[in-house]
Structure formats: structure tokens, C-alpha cells
């Protein structure tokens, strides 16, 4: 079985879990924007502290949050290496042919790596503490203005919810089909790119056939449960902004101010 | 306007035929042909037939997923051809399918149960009550806030039943809902369906090719090649060896043995279950 | 080809919070010519065990010998092993992929190094063996076939490689009574060909009783019994520990015993039960 824990809901009844999904979505976006504005290493200290605090309060195991980084570690390393050489400003530490490592390059690389890591940690905290349904409902609610110009926001939300539900099921299916084809002598890790891609056909075709079959049945199931029966659809989980959301927004606001202040050396710390 | 024609008939199918056609209206396969039957309120009915016999086509006709080429299907007196009333029919005829994974829309169980009532515009507080009730009915209350992914097949299928129950249907159709389950899961689903029928008076239509699931039914319908070739109590149906053979089915083992003993000249009654068979043998001694 | 399993242990997601022991200290031997049933409730480790036999799962602890192969060795000729140990997964019709039935069945042999011509001959032979009308079906798309036919084609896709050992994971799941009967009769037929040993996972005790000469009972990742169906089903206590139900024929015998009628022997098939009943009536 492969690890599909990334982005999966971690059930708990913590304060963070109970926050409104819309608030969490917007705050996460604010957090991500902030992380990309920061370029001073010192300012990352409060970011780390903040992530740790939110993790502790949310009762999601720290290890789980750290594990979410594993999925993108390759991209982080790759992007860092590219940036390491791309920036040629500052003191030269090492150089060979047209490549050189400079203090500017090192700084850019570290900056970028940290940003990506914080980005993934922040967003996985969101998905760990918010059920896919809340998340999609929240997005639907935030997309409300689009509804006024006849964008089918509710259908979009249902599509996202179904996608989230079927990802683990299809992953398992890929495993099963690969095993079955391996039993018939298929080999997925030999040869060049072209050969490998071709070797995947016996997996991809059954996977698509199965996905279509599932979609067929799912469409019947949606109809059977009166999807689109009335335009006056109700919502079981009515998200209401509460005190908690206000407090969370304020705390995040204070924290963002703090980070920006440190980043711009407002207090002359360095 | 529509009056229920007869007091106790919830579903009546009159001379219904349906063929599967391609988009260009070419004949692809026969669904059902000239089927007439009626189902009484509160009955536990079993639709038996081998794969491709037309049983699932019949189920789809009951829910208005497809409408007959000829003939009529009335559910609670409403014609399934009546587009304006289609959701009245679908909310009253709850349908559970074969693969539990392909009928859940949400990643949290209570959200999945809420989906039907939400679509029908049921007020929030009432949805809450319905979820609590439906989960209790299928004995899955403790799973309310969990994901369906880690459940066993039988548990998933019970959730699928609960997700339909939350629409408060009068008729429950289980369209081969036990086919993919292991014996334990099958027993769980059968127990749930039986209990709904006995305790809540729910009309249940079970579509299956497991003979032992038909043994406890009030009424059995046998389909073969799209035609209804037999209907009656399980006792009447399984006595008729020729009929079962014509439908490419097999008798429950107890019935098969009792019939064979009768043919050998032993004076024992026809048996549906192992217990009846043993009873008969003991009487003979 | 003998299969010897020694102290096999397997753990899912080791060293994580999701760690789960799937197989615990399993030891048994499968002999040439056996039709062996692997039974146990869902999650008892049946599929995990069987996926070791052709090294789809590599051994983490313990040993398995399949004929000359040592599956616990570091270097292993996977191709040759998987050709000799064919494995049919649950709902195998969902793994069909090629444009034509013929090409789908030839997929295995080609992977195992046969030329296109030889693979086609093997495919033809295998399709005929599973009772498919070659001339009528060979050029069709596998997706056009009926459910029962698809499953036959999938089985042909495994046996085309001429395996000596055939592992079947719930081969009759989802089929109607006639379809079930046909597949099981096919398995019996296959054993008269080059397939010497059949390993079958099943939840259907009536099938196990009728078709297997031996059973392995797994319970909670441990091997509980290694015995014959007759012995397993003769012993009510043995059976009740596993949570498995006895076949109908055995149930009838037990019920009669409770009523004071003791049939001598354990009937595994309907015919056996009727002849035993003939003795007491």
C-alpha cells in the first residue's frame, strides 16, 4: 500500500478543527502570500513558531505534518539547486566553468526551500483539520460572487468533493492492476522513458475503463438520491462565523504583522 | 390527483418492454420484454435471475432512470413517465447498488447521509434527526464522523443503505447489493434489510442471484432472458425444478436434496432450509 | 513443483503508527498435485500470503521455496518464477486492456520472452482450453464480451504462459450460480493439463468442500489449521474458532446429530449426503 496520507483529514475535535472552513481557507491564503513576501531569514523564526503552535493546538501529530513535506522533497531540492546557481550576486564561494555558488545564490536557495516547505505545511494543516466536505462547502461559499454570473458553484463543489473521495480508491486500484499485470510478466521499471511509458498502457487502460464504470454507477447513485431535485437545496452543515474565527483571524493578523515587521527590520533588530 | 389504484399495491408494472438502444437508435440488447407484476406494500420481494436476465433493467425502470418503450410503471400510483413527479418517485424508492465505493459522494459518513435530504431541501434540524435515526437503524452510529474508506464491505453497504434511508423512502431496492460482499458482509446486509422490513414495514425489493437470500422472502420473481417466467412464494418457486433450470439458476441445497429424496420414493416434505430438511428426515424415522 | 513456506512473517507499513502484522510465522508445504483452499475471514492475510508465491510481495522475514527457486534469496529471476506460478486476481476481467482478445491473452507469453508467433499459438490453445470459441472471439475487443466470457479470457491470459502452479483469488466472486459452476469445472479441467497445482482463495465453503483436497485456515494473520476439508468440517469446534460457516451438507449432518441421527462420515457434496442418508432411512 502506498502512503496517501498527504492531504487527508485527521479527525479530532480541536479548536482549529472547529474553525469555519472559509476562515481557515482565507487565513491559509494570507499565510501563503505572507510566506512568499518574506525574504529575511530571521523572519522565518516566528513562522516556524506559528506553525508549531497551530499544530499543537490542532492536536495533529507533528510527525504527520512533517511527513507531508516528504511528498515534495524532490521538488524542493531541485528548485533549490537551480536557484543556487541562478543567482550570481554577492561573495563568490566556489566557481567552475560558468557555474558559481555565491552568497546570494545560497540565500535564494534557502529562501525558496523554506517557502515551499512552509507552503506545504500550511496547506496540509488546512486539509488535516478540515473535512473535504467542509473545504468544498467553504470554497463554494467563497465563490458566491461567481454564482451571480451563473457559474455553477455548487456543481463545482460536488465535483471537488467526489474527486477527493475517489483519489484514495483509484490509488488502490492502480496498485491492484499493477500487481495483476506484473503477475503476467509486465515490468514497469526497465528501459528508457518511451518504453516505460508504453509499459504503463496495460495499467492505464483498465484504470480508465474502471473509472468510467465507476462514473456510470456514481451518476446513477447521484440521481437515485435526487441530485438537482430542487433549486432550494439545504445545507446540513451550515457554516457560521463564530467568536473562534474572529479570534483566529486576529491572532493570525498579529502574527503576520510581526513577521512583516521583523522582515522589514521595523525594530532595528539587525 | 393520482389515487393509488388499489390500496396495497405500491408498484405495478404493466406489460413493460425495454430495449437498450445506441444513440443512433440501433438495437443493442434486450432489457425486459412484456413484464407485468405488482408489489404489495410491506412485502419482502426477491428478483432472481442470472447475470443479463434483465433484473437490473427492471430495477432501473422502477426508479425512473429509464422509462419503458411500451407499457407502464406506476410507483405509488405515479407514472414514471411523468417528469414532473420524478423526484417524488426517487425519494420514495431508495436504491442501493452493487459496489459500495461507487455510491458514496462524501468522505465523511454523516455528510454522505446528508446528501439526499439536502438535495430534497429538507431543513437542517430535520436532516440532523434523520442522520441519527438512519445510522441507528443500520447499527453504525459510532462511525458517524469517520471516513467510509476503512470500513469493511458489509459496513460500507450498510452506510449506503443508511444514506438512502435518510430520504425516508417507502421502498428499498437492493440492486445486487450483496454480490461483492463476503459471507459476513452479506449476512449483515440481509439482516439489516430483513429488520427494516419486519420492524419498519418497509417494502424491500432484493435483486440477487444467491438462492439462499430468496428463501425467506414473501414473494419471488424469476426473470430469464428479459421475461418474467415465474412468480410466487419461495416454496412454490423452488419446488419447480424445471423453472429454475430454465432460468439457469440452482436450487438451494436443502431443496435440491429434498426433491431428490422425494424422487427416490422417500415420503418427506419439500424443504427450503437445512432445518426443514432435517425436520422432514426426523419425521420419517 | 513443491512450495515450502517457512516461518513467513509480513508486516504492513513497518515502523510507523499504521504498522499491522499481516502474516505471523506461517509454515506449511504445498505438494505437487494439490488443490489447496486458503480460507479465513476478510483481512486474515489470505491474499497477502498468496502474493508471496510469485514474489509480487518480497519476503521480509522467513523463507519460501518454490521448486528450485528460493524466494528469500536476493537475486531472483522474477520472469521465470512468474511464468511458472500464474496468479489470477479478484475480478480479473478488470485487468483486460488490449485491442483484441487474442492480443490480451498473448500479453503474458510475450512478456515472458516468447516470439509473437509462439505467443499467438499459446493464446489460441489457452482460449480453447477455457472453452472460448477462438474463431468467433479472438479478434473481438475484450470489452465487448459478457461478464462470464471476460473472466474466461482473463483466466486464459494467465494459463497461456503455461504455469505449473495456478493461484486463484476468489475466482467465482460476483458470478451467478451457473457461472460459478462453469469456472470451478474449468479449474478441474485445467488440472488435467499442464497446471499441476491449484491454490484457491475462497469464502464459499461449499466450493472448498467440493473441490479442494486440502485446506489452510488463516485466522488473524496466523495459520490455524493445515488439514483436509473433511477433517476441518468434521470438527465443529475447529470450525467455530475461525468464524467460518460449515458447508450446507455438513450443517445438515450436524443438525441431524442434534436430533439423534448420526450419519457415519462427513458429507462434502450433495451426492455424498444423499448416499449417507440412504444408509439411515
Describe, in plain words, how this protein is organized in 3D.
The complex is a heterotrimer of chains A (270), B (285) and C (281). Chain A is mainly alpha-helical and 270 residues long. Chain A has two domains: 15-130 and 242-263, no CATH class; 152-224, no CATH class. Chain A contains twelve helices and two strands, in the order H-H-H-H-H-E-E-H-H-H-H-H-H-H. In chain A, helix 3 packs parallel to helix 6 (103-129) and helix 5 (73-86) packs antiparallel against helix 6. The radius of gyration of chain A is 23 Å and the shape is flat. Chain B is an alpha/beta fold and 285 residues long. Chain B has a single domain (9-251), classed as P-loop containing nucleotide triphosphate hydrolases (Rossmann fold, 3-Layer(aba) Sandwich). Chain B is 37% helix and 24% strand. Chain B contains ten helices and ten strands. In chain B, the strands form two sheets. A six-stranded mixed β-sheet of chain B has the order 6-7-8-3-9-10, sandwiched between helices. In chain B, strands 2-1-4-5 form a four-stranded antiparallel β-sheet, covered by helices on one side. In chain B, a hairpin with a 2-residue loop joins strand 9 and strand 10 (227-232). The longest helix of chain B is centred in the last third of the chain and has 18 residues, at 183-200. Chain B is globular, with a radius of gyration of 20 Å. The N and C termini of chain B lie far apart (62 Å). The model of chain B is unreliable at 1-6 (pLDDT under 50). By secondary structure, chain C is α/β, with parallel strands linked by helices. Chain C has three domains: 1-76 and 164-244, Rossmann fold, CATH 3.40.50; 97-161; 247-281, no CATH class. Chain C has twelve helices and ten strands. Chain C has helices at 46-50, 78-84, 101-111, 116-129, 134-137, 147-159, 177-190, 205-211, 229-234, 236-242, 248-258, 270-280; strands at 3-12, 20-30, 35-39, 61-66, 69-70, 85-88, 165-169, 197-201, 214-219, 222-227. In chain C, helix 3 (101-111) runs parallel beside helix 6 (147-159). Chains in contact: A-B, A-C, B-C. At the B-C interface, helix 6, helix 9 and helix 10 of B face helix 7, helix 11 and helix 12 of C.
